[in-house]
Amino acid sequence: MKHFFNRRESIVTEALDGLLRTAAPGKLARLDAYPGIKVIVRADWDKAKVAVISGGGAGHEPSHAGFVGRGMLTAAVSGEIFASPSVEAVLTAIRAVTGTPGCLLVVKNYTGDRLNFGLAAEKARVEGFKVEMVIVGDDIALPDIAQPRGVAGTLFVHKIAGHAAESGASLAEVTATAQAAARDIVSLGMSLSTCSIPGQAHEERLGEAEAELGLGIHGEPGVERIAVQSADALIATMTERLAARLDVAAPHALLINNLGAVPPLEMSLIADAVLTSPLAHHVKLVIGPRALMTALNMNGFSLSLIKLDAGREAALRAPVEPTSWVEPVETHDIVVLPAPKGADDAQAASASSNATVERVLGAVCAHLAAQEAELNRLDARIGDGDTGTTFATAARAVSARIPHLPQADIPATFAEIGHILGTDMGGSSGVLMSIFFTAAATALGEGRDVPTALRAGLERVTFYGGATPGARTLVDALEPGLHALGSEGIAAAARAARAGSDATAGMAKARAGRAAYLSSQDLTGLPDPGAVAVAGIFEVVAAEWADGVSKAS
Q1: pLDDT tens digits for 492-504?
Q2: Which residue among 130, 244, 413, 445 is buried most deeply as judged by most CB within 10 Å?
């Protein structure tokens, strides 16, 4: 696994300094005790209220330093990656921010954190400080364990305790509020991979088709390994176990946490799956999806819930300074507005039948859907790996519309296919293919034959897209195929398209598309995936046409 860092021994201090350099001026500071003691504090703190301190090993960013600020933490103490901060580091933080009102330590339920924060608290009391400690053990993955782990649900305690302290509550009140909140939190995580630590060799314990349920935020093994399934199925497993631990008579707040490496696209999908599951009936407020308490680059997420009452809801909704915190939103239905109708919708031709058109279109769509993985594989070598999905999406969209097409009216069918591709195919290929069929439909309507009309579509594609033969694009298969179609027929067109597609593998430079950014070393020997798709279409049409002629005779 690759990481961005300078030296393993300085990665945490440099990361904390990066946080300070990008924070609003005058809001955060660090104590001058680097590198052994790493403490981030509120720069404006005057010790007039109860201080709230938390921390732990690094690698969970933005926790914990990212939540220092008005309304949340007063100070955060960091250890090295996944290592508890020392007793002296915690004690230094207590000394730095604790005034007469005292301080509360919020600690995740790990042995190192409990011992180091606990001994620091005892030493601070000897020095005359008023110190209390709340331990958070919200993880329900291991139901029979005596000391459940503290995971992302700890953030609820940061927010609720921070709000109470900011409101002027006494140390006893802040502590009682935090303890009660900690008792009412449940969390569960899911991951498709373990995390890797900068500077250490990485060993992945999960197989290609395995996911892990309930693993810890330091990469500790979960309660069980399960088969990778659809997101809905995985989330159903999680939400069932979480729901079993809830007070179903009360509303809850839900925190959707990215453990580090899940793309935003997938996190939004996860949010949709959770908020359309039965668990959503118990959720009033949603926080996230966002990376809030990570496990370095773990490809996973966690769900945390806390039972709400009026006080907790107010605390969670209250604005705070730390930008890492996400303002909760109340659960709501999706607003759907009617899409405006265009001229194409008003003028759509009526459905009609043509056995040849239906057979050929069906075969082409089936072929492109079957080629999705292979075309994606080719494109991943030279592009962004989505050519197969783009063409398969188009195929599925057209296939669904075949019974509704004006099949007996070829110009209208071409126009409708152009409309479908422009709407559903996506990407540059979708626009180009929509232009191709739309322009061909216009030419057919002007009385030109099919080969001539298709070449008119190609002319528009090259005009708008800028790609000409030799540019290493789908045009390298489309142009020779259409040229042969007009003079020699469909079988020759299929052979010419395939030859054009094969020739792209020998083109050392692309002049259009994402491949234009690649070197000849990356391109040589690999055919253009769009050209491969077009050649396949010609071959399927040729085969279906020959089969239809054979059956007719």
Answers
A1: 999 999 999 999 8
A2: 413
What single DSSP character describes residue 404? G
Give the model's pLDDT for residue 178.
98
- Indicate the burial class of 113 (C-beta count within 10 angstroms; 0-12, 13-18, 19 or more): buried
d(CA 78, CA 76): 6
Q: Is the separation of the CB atoms in 218 and 60 below 8 Å?
A: no
The confidence score (pLDDT) of residue 547 equals 57
- In three-state secondary structure terms, 126 is helix
CA distances from 479 to 112, 482, 497 (A): 68, 5, 8
Query: What average pLDDT does the segment 341-365 reach?
Result: 80
pLDDT at res. 216: 84
Residue 491: both structure tokens together: 């079988």
Distance CA 101, CA 352 (A): 82
Is residue 538 left, alpha or beta, with left meaning phi > 0 and alpha meaning psi from -120 to 50? alpha
The per-residue pLDDT for 386 is: 82
Using pLDDT thresholds of 50, 70 and 90, give the confidence band for residue 505.
confident
Spatial distance between the Cα atoms of 298 and 318, rounded to a whole number of angstroms:
30
Helices (H), 263-351: 264-275, 310-317, 343-346
* Residues forming beta bridges with residue 304, ordered by sequence position: 187, 255
Distance in angstroms (rounded) separating the CA atoms of residues 461 and 53: 63
* 68 and 111 Cβ atoms separated by less than 8 Å: no
61, 135, 322, 442, 534 from 435: Cα distances, Å: 47, 63, 49, 11, 15
Q: How many CB atoms lie within 10 A of CB 352?
A: 14
Q: Which among 60, 64, 158, 218 is annotated as catalytic?
A: 218
Say yes or no to pLDDT of 548 above 70.
no
Instruction: Kindly report the backbone phi and psi dihedral angles of residue 340, in degrees, each rounded to the nearest multiple of 5, phi listed first.
Output: -65, 145
Closest CA to 249 of 176, 184, 164: 184
CA distance 528 to 478: 12
Mean pLDDT for the stretch of residues 362-380: 91
Residue 36 per-residue DSSP state: T
Written as one string, the DSSP assignment of 143-206 is TT-SSPPP-TTHHHHHHHHHHHHHTT--HHHHHHHHHHHHHTEEEEEEESS----TTS-----S
Q: Look at strands 224-227 and 210-213 and give their pairing.
A: antiparallel
Task: Name the 3-class secondary structure at 544.
Answer: helix
Alpha carbons 97 and 42: distance in angstroms, whole number: 9
Closest CA to 530 of 427, 397, 423: 427
pLDDT at 290 over 80: yes
Residue 163: asked if its preceding bond is cis (omega within 30°), the reply is: no
What sign does the CA torsion over 377, 379, 385, 389 have? Answer: negative
Structure tokens at 79: 């250890």
Report the relative pairing of strands 75-81 and 38-42 from DSSP bridges: antiparallel
CB 424 within 8 A of CB 395: no
Active-site residue, 367 included: no
Mean pLDDT of 431-456: 93
